[in-house]
Amino acid sequence: MLSSGGATQYWAAPLSTSTHRRRSPVIACWLAIATASLAASIWIGDAPGVYYDEVIQAGTARNFIESTSRGRLPGATTVPLFGRPLPWMTQVYLGALKDQLLIPSFALFGATPVVLRTTTLSIALVGLLFAMLFAERLIGSGAAIAMGLLLATDPSFFFVARHDWGPFASGFMFRSAGLLFAIRFLVDGRLWTALLAGSAFGLGIYNKVDVVVCLAATVCAALAAAYAGGDALRARIRERRAGLVLFATALLVTAAPMIASLAEMGAVAQSLSRQDDSVEKLLAAWTTLDGTYFARLMAVGGRFERLFDPSDVGFGLFGVVALASAPTLVLLARRETREARGALVFVWVAFVLATIGMLVFPGASRIHHFLNVLPFPHLAVAAVLSVGWRTRHRLVRTTLAAVAALALVGSIVIDIRTAQLITTTGGRGWWSDALNAFAADPSLSAEDNLVSLDWGFHQSLSFLLPSDGPRLEEPFWGIRRIADRHGEWVRAGVSGDVYLVHAMNYDLMGYGNDFLAAIIALEDDSVSRQVHLDREGERVFWSVRIGRPHRLIYQPKRGFRVE
Question: Hey, which residues does 94 pair with through a beta bridge?
Fold first, then answer.
């Protein structure tokens, strides 16, 4: 570990009690950060509206509490526990760990958007504590505090943690816990720390399979650090062979549900590998680092393919600083003792390899994929600040302080702009709170059927509506497939059916205009349609109520018609 007084050989000796006393500033800083983050989330309020992918796992957590199967995705699995459906796997590549973590909060405070977002942000903040304690063990308390401030104010971290999908928050918590317990095992050799480290990384893989990229980068970085860190570190690792076996065993056991899905994941990975998304990945990686990704996503109403259109969302400086920190670490490592060099090499290699790994991982083209690189970009910057500050050279210190301040202020400015966009619009498109308002409409009853003819409605309404509320259908997944196979797709409708389609800007499946044209052509007094607007007056979606039995027919060349 590096400290303000120089390099201490924690690679070769257990931590002293004085180090534990020095940790109090790190914990105090984390408490201040966590309080400020939760206060900022409360200030933003209940905006934006809930997002389809945001509530996929929240819905199954609520199902466990209410003993229902409402809104469960095809392919999702549960196991019985106390007569209730405990979520087990959400998709073949996505475990139900987040679902399970949400159950206590929902049981205590209710399944609401505010409880959901406060819980997921809190999970990420616990992960931040683990990451800061890891940084303190590896580099020092100053670096841990600097990393904590940079990471907590990073718009990509804060907003994705608040509106968690992917899921990011739970994955980050277990990755950070794995790093912390791994370094504790390396330092003190206690087997229980190896058990916890392996379990944490295994649960991270169970949470979502792409965490294997972070784990692989971490292992490679540890080997590089062992090579650079000298004989003492390599000897320490050799002495830990029994613990390494325990680590691997715990990892395999806790990751077992995901390992069981490997065969099915192979087919998914093969289909994703055919996609040429390299440009999208590079842009996503950059906008995640510079902090503008979430603001861009809000500006275009969730349409990822339009993410890079907005030009008025600003520009964050942290991305430049983070990229510059990697080669700087290489230069700094050459001047350090071998023990300190091992720590810096670890940070540099982990940052670089984790980034490259996500760029080549099939289908990893969104922000929740590239956030798997955390906490390494912020730790790299903090390491440069810590080592550079020890030079005691006034110009170096002034330059480092200015760069850190600019990166910090730049992130805070984007935080404020993004929060203002959210509160002003209530969310646009797929994030609009117009859907929340629709779900709260007292005219909806248990006799109604809400039929989603586009992506973005079903899971959100499953979460927002009471379990004894309107019935929900999501038939659009098979409309074209069935129509192509049999010549037409037919739905026998009843009185009280309410069809939902998005306005043109957010119509993913492309059924909206065609369906509305069929409704207009019907000229039936039992049919009513309503447009739902966001806070800026922009059309978000239409709801169409048909007040008598009918048939909705879709033919590939003729489109929709209603009989």
Answer: 91, 208
Nearest alpha carbon to residue 208 among 170, 176, 248: 170
Tell me how far apart the alpha carbons of residues 66 and 48 are, in angstroms, rounded to a whole number.
26
Handedness of CA 216, 221, 222, 226 (dihedral sign): positive
The length of the chain is: 563
Amino acid at 37: S
Rounded Cα distance between 375 and 182, Å, is 15
Half-sphere exposure of 523 (CA within 13 A, CB side): 1
Distance, CA of 323 to CA of 534 (rounded, Å): 38
Euclidean distance between CA atoms 374 and 372, whole angstroms: 5
> Cβ distance 7 to 340 under 8 Å?
yes
Burial 257-273 (b: 16+ CB within 10 A, else e): bbeebeeebeebeeeee
Q: pTM for this one? A: 0.91
Distance between CA atoms of residues 347 and 138, nearest Å? 9
Q: How far is CA 54 from CA 202, 203, 423, in A?
A: 23, 20, 18
In the β-sheet with 84-91, what is the strand arrangement from edge to edge? Answer: 77-81, 84-91, 94-95
Residue 21: pLDDT over 70 = no
Report whether 456 contacts 478 (CB < 8 A). Answer: no
Query: What local confidence, expressed as pLDDT, does residue 275 receive?
Result: 62
- Span 12-40, average pLDDT: 71
For residues 439 and 491, the answer to whether their CB atoms sit within 8 Å is: no
Residue with tokens 């914990």: 27
Section 211-217 average pLDDT: 91
- Rounded to an integer, the average pLDDT of 182-199 is 91
Going from the C-alpha of 15 to that of each of 143, 237, 240, the distances in angstroms are: 17, 16, 16
